[in-house]
Each structure stands twice: as C-alpha cells, then as structure tokens.
Amino acid sequence: MKCKIILFLMMIASIAANTQEVSNTEIIEILNKQNEMLQHRLDALEKQIDDVLWFNKVGDLCYVDKVFMTGPPVWNEKNPSSQGAGNPTKFWSYIFIPKTVKEGQKYPLIVLPHGGVHASFDTYYTHIVRELVTQGISL
C-alpha cells in the first residue's frame, strides 16, 4: 500500500515537472480517482475478512461454505434489448450445516434471502445463525 502511495506521489511530481503548472483542480481530480479505487479495494478486503470471521464465529457448531450460484435470466425483462438482458442471475451464498447431522436423515432447511445490489450477509447476523444451527437447522 505504501509503495502505491509513493508511486502515486512520484507520478504527480513527474506531471508537475513536465508541465509549466499543474492546476489544483487537476491534482484534486487525480486524488479523487485514486481514492475511489482505494475505497473499492478496501470494501473487497473488508468482505474477505468477514468471510473468514464466519468460520471463527460459528465454526464450532457448523460447517461453513461460501458458494457462487447461477440461475436462469430474469423471466420478464422490461427491456429485452438492454445491455445484460438475458444474462443468468449470479450471486454468492453461504451454507451453514450443523456438525450434528447424520447422513441419510432429513433435516429442516431455511433460506435467508438478503437481496439487493449492495446486500451483504455479514457476521452481524452471527447470533441468528448460531441459534438456528443449535436447533439443528441448516441454512
């Protein structure tokens, strides 16, 4: 991270050296673009850390997995000629299976949809998962 910042500062110094004068507006614009890229990377890192936390917070009670699921495209597209129309539905899902399950037996399953473009099923919901898994329910 420090290396990227140093390279970025060197890039700004290079721009300043190659031109008579770099306006503050241009520098602010460059910094804002770098900040947006950094924020996205920090969001991705935060999600990866939270994924690991699931194992730490409920791993004593259940097996935890994260899977990428796909499904058919939206059945009734409002604009069938728009970009992305007809593409399959894709989303990440967590699976929590109690460690007490026995092969060949039937167990209840609960699906907890947590939708939306920016939806996130993070470890904030640990207490719910722990309670349901304790009751022998898979999620």
Brief sketch in words of this structure:
The chain is α+β, with helices and mostly antiparallel strands and 139 residues long.
Write a structural description.
This protein is 44% helix and 14% strand. It is built from 3 helices and 2 strands. It has helices at residues 2-18, 24-58, 126-134; strands at 62-71, 89-98. The chain has a two-stranded antiparallel ribbon with strand order 1-2. The longest helix is centred in the first third of the chain and has 35 residues, at 24-58. The chain is elongated, with a radius of gyration of 23 Å. It starts with a helix and ends in a 5-residue tail after the last helix. The model has no long low-confidence stretch (mean pLDDT 82).
Compute the number of structural domains.
2
Order of helices and strands: HHEEH
Can you tell me the overall shape?
Answer: elongated
The computed structural class is alpha+beta
Radius of gyration: 23 Å
| Beginning-to-end CA distance, first to last residue | 37 Å
Average of the residue pLDDT scores? 82
- Main sheet? 2 strands, antiparallel
Strand order of the largest sheet: 1-2
Query: Number of helical runs?
Result: 3
